[in-house]
Design brief:
With about 325 residues, the protein is of the alpha/beta class. Helices cover about 45% and strands about 15% of the residues.
């Protein structure tokens, strides 16, 4: 029985490798990524099952169900319908549950290991490929998640990383600094982790330091600060040879979609990974740009999008050797 299972796994992996090779060739990903200014956009789906998504916050969802009058199943719709008092109560419950989940993150979870492998393969690609401009040694990770999974991975890998939030980015002088190895006289890949909607601080999420889900997310005192951080993102995405790799993002943030669309018109290439080929819908604002948006469909034997992206980048890296 084990031999049969091993053969099935090997066949599945072989099929995926063949599909990935075809994708790399079809979309010329070697040429695109080997000299690109690479940025990632991480949504909640990037963490897979390793960290609860909105539906996993039981107390918060129960409270919303008690208060909501309507037929929508949307977390955001329910939250938007509340008056100020109940909305603050829902926010308190959300932050409490989030901090419990944050405290219990398993960094050895297979889905987090997929994110780690993705970051490592990106590092190897940037470090190895030649003819790079100085700016292309910087890899931006724009994340909508509050957790510190990405930062912890980068710290554990001892990669150069600078974390930006709405409150910190004006205080840093390191956003445009590229790491340099003086022993070997060469530049080294340098990461920027930009927390677009807020971040934990020393493992704790503060209720007044984040943008909450929903269509009223920017109608807070924090809104203007986060818009400034998004403008910084736009500056990165309109650079020559800029590529944005989208993983785990639902496409429901119109402000962000508009920013990406504007950058595409300025030459940005978007590579969008789908987790579900039917349910995942790329916003029309972005989809309208046609060939500038490369859509990577899910495999028949579904795997996480971080793993899917990691395997393709590994394939590109091997072709560059």
């Amino acid at each position: 029985m084990n031999e049969i299972l091993d053969e099935n796994v090997l066949e599945t992996k072989t099929n995926e490798n063949q599909i990935n090779e075809e994708i790399i060739k079809k979309y010329r990903l070697r040429e695109i990524l080997a000299s690109a200014n690479i940025s990632f956009l991480f949504g909640s789906g990037v963490n897979g099952r390793a960290f609860p998504q909105l539906i996993g916050f039981k107390e918060t969802n129960n409270f919303l169900d008690e208060k909501y009058i309507g037929d929508s199943n949307s977390f955001e719709e329910k939250l938007n319908s509340l008056d100020e008092i109940d909305r603050n109560k829902a926010n308190e419950l959300f932050v409490k549950e989030f901090n419990i989940a944050e405290e219990n993150i398993d960094m050895k979870h297979s889905d987090i290991m997929d994110v780690e492998n993705l970051i490592e393969n990106t590092y190897r690609l940037v470090e190895t490929t030649e003819n790079r401009q100085d700016s292309s040694y910087k890899v931006n990770i724009f994340t909508l998640n509050y957790d510190d999974i990405v930062e912890t991975i980068l710290q554990n890998k001892s990669y150069v990383n600078n974390v930006l939030s709405a409150d910190s980015y004006k205080k840093t002088n390191f956003f445009d600094v590229i790491g340099y190895n003086f022993k070997y006289n060469k530049k080294i890949p340098t990461f920027i982790t930009a927390k677009l909607h807020g971040s934990v601080n020393r493992g704790i999420l503060a209720q007044d330091a984040i943008i909450y889900p929903g269509n009223k997310k920017y109608e807070t005192a924090l809104g203007s600060k986060f818009f400034e951080l998004m403008f910084l993102m736009k500056e990165e995405l309109i650079k020559q040879n800029a590529v944005l790799i989208v993983i785990g993002y639902s496409g429901n943030d119109e402000h962000l979609n508009g920013l990406i669309s504007d950058a595409i018109e300025s030459s940005l290439t978007v590579i969008w990974f789908k987790y579900d080929n039917v349910k995942d819908v790329i916003p029309e604002t972005i989809r309208k740009h046609g060939d500038k948006v490369i859509v990577i469909d899910q495999l028949e034997d579904k795997i996480g999008t971080a793993k899917r992206c990691s395997n393709i980048i590994e394939g590109v890296f091997k072709e560059c050797l």
